[in-house]
Amino acid sequence: xxxxxxxxxxxxxxxxxxxxxxxxxxxxxxxxxxxxxxxxxxxxxxxxxxxxxxxxxxxxxxxxxxxxxxxxxxxxxxxxxxxxxxxxxxxxxxxxxxxxxxxxxxxxxxxxxxxxxxxxxxxxxxxxxxxxxxxxxxxxxxxxxxxxxxxxxxxxxxxxxxxxxxxxxxxxxxxxxxxxxxxxxxxxxxxxxxxxxxxxxxxxxxxxxxxxxxxxxxxxxxxxxxxxxxxxxxxxxxxxxxxxxxxxxxxxxxxxxxxxxxxxxxxxxxxxxxxxxxxxxxxxxxxxxxxxxxxxxxxxxxxxxxxxxxxxxxxxxxx
Length: 319
Description:
Layout: E1 2-14, E2 26-43, E3 49-54, H1 60-75, E4 81-87, H2 97-112, H3 119-134, H4 141-148, E5 151-156, E6 162-166, H5 171-178, E7 181-185, H6 194-203, H7 207-216, H8 219-228, H9 232-249, H10 256-267, E8 271-274, E9 280-284, H11 290-299, E10 303-306, E11 315-318
Parallel strand pairs: 3-4
Antiparallel strand pairs: 1-2, 1-11, 2-4, 2-5, 5-6, 7-9, 7-10, 8-9
C-alpha cells in the first residue's frame, strides 16, 4: 500500500513574523493557492528510512526537509519506509514550499502510522518539528495555510496557541479575489531566514523590530475586514503597509527585481507585495487592468500567472 498526501502553497502572509515564539502574540492572514507539495510513502524491505526529493530543494532547504522527515519518522516510530516528495514551486519562491512539504510529509506519515490528527494538529506538529527538532526559527502561518487551505486568519495568543478563522464566504467571493490577484516570479531566490534575523535583533534589545512587530500585528485583522467587505482599496493599503514595515527591519526584501515589478504594477494601478522572504510577489490589480499588466510584465522579462485559490488544505489517500 502507498500513502499519498498533498498540501497547497500560499501567498500574501500578512502579519508574518508575529506568529513565531519570539513575538509571543500575533496574527497572520494567508491565501492558499492551487500549487502543491506532494509526497508518497511506501514500505520497503530493509530497515531505515529513505527520502527522495524531486525539484523540491537544494542546499539548506534540502537539509531542513531531510532533518524534518527523519524527526517525523522518529516521532511516529516508523521504520522501513521510503518517501518521494516534489513541489510545483521550489523553496526560495517565497510561497511556503518548505512548510507545505513538511505538512504533507506529516500527514502521510501520520496516516501510515495510523495516527488520527486533525488538520490543525498536523500543522502544529509540522511546525514543532521544524522549529524545535530541526532548530529553524519560523512561524506557524505557512503550516496552517497548507493544512487548512482557503483564505484564513490565524491568531497566536500566546504562542504556540493558535485560533483559526476561515474567511471563505462563497465560491463567488473566492472568484472575485482570484480575478484581482497575480503571482509574479522575481527570478531571485529568497532573502534568507528573516524570522531568525528579527529574533536576533529582538533578543539583542533593539526597539525597532519590536515596534515593527507591534504594528504588523494589526494588519491581518484589517486585511480580513477588507476582504469581508470586498474593499480591495483597503487590502491594497494593508499590503503596502506590510511591505513598508518589513523593509525597515529586513531591507534585503526590497531587491532591484522587486522594485522593478512594483513600479510596473504601480503604473497599472496595482499593488505589489513580496511573498515570504522573496522570490515572488503577489499583485493586487483592478480586473480591467489585469491583462495589460501581464503583458507589461512579460515584455520586461517577468512571468505573471493567475492565482487559483485552493479551497481545501492537506489531503491524504491510499492506493
